[in-house]
Each structure stands twice: as C-alpha cells, then as structure tokens.
Amino acid sequence: NISEPLPTKVELSKNFPNPFNPSTSLFVSMDHKSESSLIIYDLVGKEVRRLFDGTLDRGNTKMVWNGLNNQGFQVGGGIYICQLLVNGAYVKSQKMTLLK
Q: Please, are residues 69 and 46 in contact by the beta-carbon 8 Å criterion?
C-alpha cells in the first residue's frame, strides 16, 4: 500500500470535473490540523452550501459537492465560488461552473 506524502502547505486544488453536472470533487491538503470551512457561494456572495465546518487533520481530504444548497434543493446552472477558510482566515477560492 503506497501512502501519499504529507502536504507541506494548505491547498485547495481545482475541482474535477469543471464544468460539472451533477457533481464535482474538491481536494483539500492540510499541512497541520486546524479548524476549517469549505463554503460554496453564488456570484453575489450569498452562501449556497457549507460543505465542511470543523477540524481537518493533516493530510489530503476529498469532498464532493452534488449541486445542492444548504436546504437540500438543486441549484441552477452557473458559476459558483468555492472558498477554503482555515482558522477563520481566508486561504483560497476558485470558480466552478455547474452546467444544466
């Protein structure tokens, strides 16, 4: 069993696939254990989905967004922003395109 090397920095990799329908995978790499949030916003800055809010251990984590909002409803096609926050501070964001 080949193990992945431990990350040396905090990173939010590009989601795959992008554009996507119906779901996309996001990959977070942490160089230390910390309180983290992974949040999807629409283009006007409204929170659409909070994918993760808690403690992430050091290492690599895969998260999947299935195009649903926080209420469990399918969102419309368009561009969304994924933002990773670590210890309450902005770290990285990226654009994702949901095709309908």
A: no
